[in-house]
Amino acid sequence: MLYSIIVPVYNRPDEIQKLLESLSAQTVKPFELVIIEDGSKERCDHLLGHYRSFFTIHYHYKENEGRCEARNYGLQRAGGDYMLFFDSDVILPPFYFERLEAAMAASPCDCFGGPDAADDSFSDMQKAVSHSMTSFWTTGGIRGGKVVMEKFCPRTFNMGISRKVYETVGGFNDMLGEDIDLSLRIRKAGFDIRLIRETFVYHKRRIDFARFFKQVNNFGQARIWLHLIHPGSMKLVHTLPALMLVAGVLLLVASLFFPWLLLLPLLYALLVFFDAIAQKHTLKVAALSVVAAAVQITGYGSGFLKAFWCKMVLKQPLETKRTLINLMNRG
Predict the structure, then answer these.
(1) Could you tell me the CA-to-CA distances from 230 to 181, 193, 195, 310, 316 in Å, in that order?
(2) Distance from C-alpha of 99 to C-alpha of 83, rounded to nearest angstrom
(3) Residue 124 to residues 111, 202, 207: CA-CA distances in angstroms?
(4) What distance in Å separates the CA atoms of residue 265 and residue 323, rounded to the nearest whole number?
(5) Which of 41, 224, 234, 323 could bridge 319 with an S-S bond, Cβ 3.0-4.6 Å?
């Protein structure tokens, strides 16, 4: 079985080199790599020569159109039985494909994904953001954790689809939440989707809280888009950050009259802190995890509320993802 790894990249040669190193260290290599350089000024093609002796690499440079179009461009040129999607900022443990082969041999499926984690080499900030994105107490386990509050939807930091799925469902739509949209279309088409926990990746995430806020704000907006395109896809867990944000504002107001109410967010912060400690992190990472959780809740919650007001109350149309990014950049 041949896997085609499709990776869009935009001005991130250092990240691609780390990914290439991890691919060359795989214990088995039943794959080809398809890199789509999406109009980068800092190209990565000069890094590829050394790694071509380890596995087949197809490099394509194209005009910048965004990740959705870049992945679709790669899908059109992939030759594998399965197409795998990784972000450029992930690193694979050396056993990834060995475990994937074993899992697929034992129980084949049409679509699969795995969780993400933080490698020991990551910075304290990256570890804190990773904890915030994977902890049950911050995301409800919806990103491949052990306890899950919704049906599993693979994300493109670690996702695979069969050629039959691609030929039936197609590629990515240019929208916020494009990977979840694809997962929902795959499930609606009757294909099985599987979480393979042992095929995890190390995901570097954002390296500062400002960029993390922007990322999760988009995630919050995406949930409203997905709800409008796929009615019934929104679950209680998706609304919790917005509800917590509203509750937090009301608590601050109420605390002017009942100061003891401030103990509630303090208790939640302690819960996140000790959960991070339990994951064998340092005190610094645990403290940063509390801040990351606050950024995640406010960022996601505000994005969710903004999109709810604009798209569901004011009935504004859904833009393409590229148009939305252009509008945000102008603003």
Answers:
(1) 8, 17, 21, 18, 17
(2) 17
(3) 33, 14, 9
(4) 37
(5) 323
pLDDT-derived band at 320, boundaries 50, 70, 90: confident
Closest of 50, 43, 211 to residue 126, by C-alpha: 211
Q: What integer pLDDT is reported at residue 147 of this predicted model?
A: 43
pLDDT given for residue 1 in this prediction: 76
The number of residues in the chain equals 331
Strand partners, 301: none
Whether 330 shows a pLDDT value over 50: the answer reads no
- Write down the pTM of the prediction: 0.90
Total Cβ atoms within 10 A of residue 268 = 18
Amino acid at 269: A
What's the rounded Cα separation, in Å, for the pair 33 and 120? Answer: 26
The rounded mean pLDDT for the chain is 92
Separation CA 136–CA 154 (nearest Å): 17
Quick one: average pLDDT of 178-184? 96
- List, edge to edge, every strand of the sheet that includes 201-203: 90-91, 201-203, 116-117
Q: What is the mean pLDDT of residues 251-258?
A: 95
d(CA 302, CA 110): 35
Element (H, E) at 104: helix 96-106
Q: How far is CA 48 from CA 75, 87, 217, in A?
A: 20, 17, 34
Measure Cα distances from 281 to 123, 125, 182, 194, 206 in Å.
12, 12, 34, 29, 18
Answer yes or no: is pLDDT of 327 > 50: no
What CA–CA distance (Å, rounded) separates 75 from 149?
Answer: 31
304 neighbors 221 (Cβ within 8 angstroms) = yes
Q: What pLDDT is stored for residue 2 in this prediction?
A: 93
